[in-house]
């Protein structure tokens, strides 16, 4: 079972490699600023090797062309394409299973959690010898700069209560789109993933726990950004996903 490293987490960056996975659907307008910010961050972060993998989920705008143009001047950026519009869960799985780094983080295209918060996930993962570190809005809500509308925020809290009851997961925020995995663990976790849309976060954390990997929850800065791709019906459907996870387990799909 892969584990953490001893010593100073910051120094260990010099011998470690990182993949940043960005699922993208119709993100032509937001991605340029996001990629620039990530490139600036990586320039001073000290990773031995780093890459940025944008997974295009069948976008109908110029997302793919924009990423390809950016990659011509930033070779660390590359594009993966899904076979049509498959959902965020499929996109993250596609990117994670294709990651070249020893660690892989997935983050939203709007950087609602600033990429600089990766330092927190990495440091805490090293200290705890964890293979998974997930960003959390629930552990310290003072770190939320811009809140979601009241209805969405309340629904999120209720969803996480349902997740804890139905799956036994101990986390207070499974849906923050900012999660770091040791890639060897990610290969085992994501190849077992069944859900392709927004409930996949619960599933991969459930699989990680079932396989014996240590996952920790880390408070991070977060801001709601206009233009969410999660519609009301998708959000309501996500309440069924913890039950789908339990059913998949009963059917032996995570073996």
Number of helices: 10
Report the oligomer.
single chain
Q: How much helical structure, as a percent, in the residues?
A: 40-55%
Low-confidence stretches: 1-11
Biggest pleated-sheet summary: 7 strands, mixed
Order of helices and strands: HEHEHEHEHEEHEHHEEHH
The CATH superfamily name is Spore Coat Polysaccharide Biosynthesis Protein SpsA, Chain A
What strand line-up does the widest sheet have? 3-2-1-4-7-5-8
Measured between the Cα atoms of the first and last residue, the distance is 16 Å
Rounded to an integer, what's the Rg over CA atoms?
17 Å
Secondary structure: number of strands = 9
Shape: globular
The number of domains:
1
Q: Indicate the proportion of strand residues.
A: 15-25%
Nearest-integer average pLDDT: 91
Q: Which CATH class applies here?
A: Alpha Beta
| Secondary-structure arrangement, i.e. CATH architecture | Alpha-Beta Complex
The CATH topology: Spore Coat Polysaccharide Biosynthesis Protein SpsA, Chain A
What can you tell me about this protein's structure?
The chain has 255 residues and is an alpha/beta fold. It has helices at residues 9-12, 31-45, 63-73, 88-97, 118-128, 150-167, 183-190, 200-210, 232-238, 241-250, and strands at residues 17-24, 49-56, 77-81, 103-107, 132-136, 144-146, 178-182, 215-219, 222-223. The chain has a single domain (9-250), classed as Spore Coat Polysaccharide Biosynthesis Protein SpsA, Chain A, CATH 3.90.550. Helices cover 41% and strands 18% of the residues. β1 (17-24), α2 (31-45) and β2 form a beta-alpha-beta unit. 44% of the residues are buried.
